[in-house]
Design brief:
Blueprint (H helix, E strand, L loop, with lengths): L2 H16 L13 E2 L1 H11 L8 H5 L2 E2 L1
Antiparallel strand pairs: 1-2
């Protein structure tokens, strides 16, 4: 990654933070998650749920 790409990513992150965070429009409202398992996973990893990647989040979808 070039220095200018890194700077642009930082600017995007700062703008998103000022706007209240990132929003994902492609997740269906009908999607349900096992919140107990999700919370346990986050506690074990020492992270906040908002910091999960989509790949991590998808493992908690309830069919």
């Amino acid at each position: 990654m070039s220095e200018s790409e890194r700077m642009n990513m930082n600017l995007l992150d700062e703008a998103a933070e000022k706007a209240g965070g990132y929003v994902s429009n492609f997740i269906s409202r009908d999607t349900h998650y096992d919140l107990r398992k999700l919370a346990k996973y986050c506690k074990e990893k020492g992270i906040e749920p908002a910091d999960l990647t989509l790949r991590e989040l998808n493992q908690f979808i309830v069919a």
